[in-house]
Write a structure and sequence with these properties.
Length: about 625
């Protein structure tokens, strides 16, 4: 200690003075190395009943040592952390160095310390109690300073070796100066004011502040300042602890910067989502929709380009339909390429990958189980794709797929190029299949109609079974309601309602049901799909929905100028659902025959309306039908 005094100049500015300052700190402070206590101030000796023989940390600190030892191991050298102990002990702050750690406990922990012998209070064993205290201060893994408020401007009177290493200043360059010399241009004024207020009020404080080393380099300093009082309670010194937290602080600031950047990007993407929704609503056809979507995405600062591709099963490629900005170099990619677009088409899920040093993220364009292709977005080279961004872009892709579906569905009635697909289905979940088998009859699909509310039903003519046999067989089927609308000698007109609405399900996917003929548990279904649509995806969707589906034939054909179906469809647009239903039921029910096999009252009941309402709908529909034939005079 004499050598230390000589180096420091003696007086209050030596290590002994530092040790004396810690002796007056009211919080328990211990220094440990390799599980051995190398120093304990009076508050710690009193709180934990540490005597001369109690150098083993596990013995002196009892069960709390396990928690402390684990925390020390988990604390990075040169950093600090706070941990919570039990309710009696409160918490502790650990400053970790290369060769040990300093632990500062909250004031007033319990005195339980295991099975250590009860020894008198006193110094830790050693050749010199003062020497141990001095060594603890000098070798502490954090910067330690002591200032004297009785001197002008509260100057430093002691700094340890760690402080010199952190700041780059020598002992003689700082003793006698106020510690504010570490502050600089970017030091936080609020943190400075907080320290000044704490000193004015004689209370401890901890702040994080940007300081400057002797060579001018910046570092983040976690500063803790606490008053030291004498026996009378008067503040005689201030002890300070400095911890270089630059690495942790820079990581926190980088995280904040990335978070702010991401929030900005997400705000822009939400605006992009609104713009794409407007495009979906306003575009006139699929090609225009896809081109405008790609243009809008590529115009966003966060993205370099976008393209939409569609699977071509004949060539096993993904054919590019539209692109904007930086897109694929070629018009085709193979479906087995190592590319996120290929992965998305294979899995039906978004996929992210790096292609030629740039991040690409692909999203399936799928609606109602029909695949319309893949949307691929190319991002900036250095930017990762966040989960929230993926969710928003997935929603955007679903909106695009919905728009494509709407355009494809609208083309069913107007396109001249169609593919007629014939399928055989034996799955009993399809009501006509089960009913034709159980009632031993033949069913032929006529039309689908709307009933009261949003419910849709399908009308079939049934031959080979009586009305009673049909209703009895349907009663044994789950989720199927069979209602006899008209009963004749050779056939009946029935109405099938159930959870499985094949016609409506296909219509939502842009497919027209031309015919359903079911006999002995097998249904032959004829579909009409626009040639521009993904016919393969439509057929796969039916196969997935109904087990035992076999493809009978594909036939491409051109429609005539106006088919009977188109004329009927045009007339149907002019009729309300109720008018169309009344006209259709009257015709199929033989209401226009003589003698009438059914009455207006019966037809009204089948629609769930009164007889006068039924006749009003029927007369209006008849008038519109006449105008369709003879012109609106």
């Amino acid at each position: 200690m004499d050598d230390v005094d000589a180096d420091r100049g003696g007086g209050l500015g030596d290590a002994a003075g530092a040790a004396r300052a810690l002796e007056h700190v009211v919080d328990p402070v211990v220094a440990v190395a390799d599980g051995t206590i190398t120093y304990a101030n009076p508050a710690a000796r009193d709180a934990f009943e540490i005597g001369n023989a109690d150098r083993d940390a596990a013995t002196a600190l009892g069960t709390r040592w396990n928690r402390l030892a684990t925390a020390i191991d988990e604390t990075t050298v040169g950093t600090a952390r706070r941990i919570d102990l039990d309710e009696d002990d409160g918490g502790a702050r650990i400053h970790r160095g290369a060769n040990g750690a300093t632990i500062t406990f909250d004031r007033g922990p319990s005195a339980t310390h295991g099975d250590a012998a009860d020894t008198p209070e006193g110094s830790l064993p050693g050749t010199s109690d003062r020497l141990v205290k001095d060594r603890a201060l000098e070798e502490a893994p954090v910067g330690v300073t002591i200032s004297d408020p009785d001197l002008d401007d509260n100057p430093l009177v002691y700094v340890n070796d760690a402080y010199e290493e952190i700041t780059g200043y020598e002992y003689d360059e700082v003793v006698g100066r106020n510690c504010r010399f570490l502050q600089g241009e970017e030091s936080d004024e609020n943190a400075i004011a907080e320290m000044a207020a704490a000193i004015d009020e004689d209370r401890p404080v901890t702040v994080e502040i940007k300081n400057y080393r002797k060579d001018g380099t910046e570092f983040w300093n976690e500063v803790t300042i606490a008053p030291v009082r004498d026996e009378a309670g008067r503040v005689t010194h201030y002890v300070g602890f400095q911890n270089d937290i630059t690495a942790r602080k820079e990581a926190e600031l980088e995280l904040e910067r990335r978070t702010e950047e991401l929030e900005y990007i997400l705000d822009r993407i939400e605006g992009l989502m609104q713009d794409v929704t407007d495009v979906v609503a306003g575009s006139t056809d699929r090609a225009e929709l896809e081109a405008e979507v790609c243009d809008r995405i590529a115009a966003e600062d966060a993205y370099d380009g976008a393209w939409i591709g569609e699977r071509n099963p004949a060539t096993e490629t993904i054919d590019v339909r539209s692109r904007a900005g930086d897109g694929p170099e070629h018009d085709r990619l193979r479906t087995d390429d190592d590319h996120p677009a290929a992965e998305t088409l294979a899995t039906g899920e978004p996929a992210v990958a790096t292609v030629d040093g740039t991040t690409h993220i692909a999203f399936p364009l799928s609606y109602n189980e029909i695949e319309y292709g893949v949307l691929t977005v190319r991002t900036e080279r250095t930017r990762a794709v966040d989960d929230r961004e993926t969710v928003i872009l997935s929603a955007l892709a679903r909106a695009v797929a919905s728009g494509v579906n709407a355009r494809e569905t609208s083309r069913v009635l107007t396109t001249d190029a169609v593919v007629a697909v014939e399928l055989d289905v034996t799955d009993r979940s399809l009501a006509p299949v089960a009913l034709s088998a159980d009632a031993d009859c033949r069913l032929e699909y006529r039309r689908s109609v709307h009933r009261t509310g949003d419910e849709t039903t399908s009308l079939f003519t049934a031959t080979g079974a009586s009305a009673d046999e049909l209703t009895a067989a349907a009663a044994e089927l789950s989720d199927v309601d069979c209602r006899v609308v008209v009963e004749r000698d050779e056939e009946s007109l029935i109405e099938l309602t159930g959870a499985d609405d094949l016609v409506g399900w296909l219509s939502e996917r842009g497919v027209r049901t031309q015919a359903i003929e079911s006999d002995a548990g097998r249904a032959r279904i004829t579909l009409e799909v626009p040639r521009s649509a993904n016919v393969r995806a439509v057929v796969e969707a039916v196969e997935d929905r109904y087990a035992g589906t076999d493809i009978v034939s594909f036939q491409q054909r051109e429609r005539e100028a106006e088919t009977r179906e188109e004329f009927a469809a045009g007339l149907e647009k002019a009729l309300t659902d109720r008018q169309f239903g009344a006209l259709q039921r009257a015709y199929l029910g033989g209401y226009f025959e003589w003698p009438r096999p059914t009455t207006g009252e019966e037809l009204a009941q089948s629609m769930g309306v009164s007889r006068p309402t039924f006749h009003e709908h029927l007369r209006t529909a008849e008038a519109k039908l006449c105008r369709a034939f003879f012109g609106d005079a």
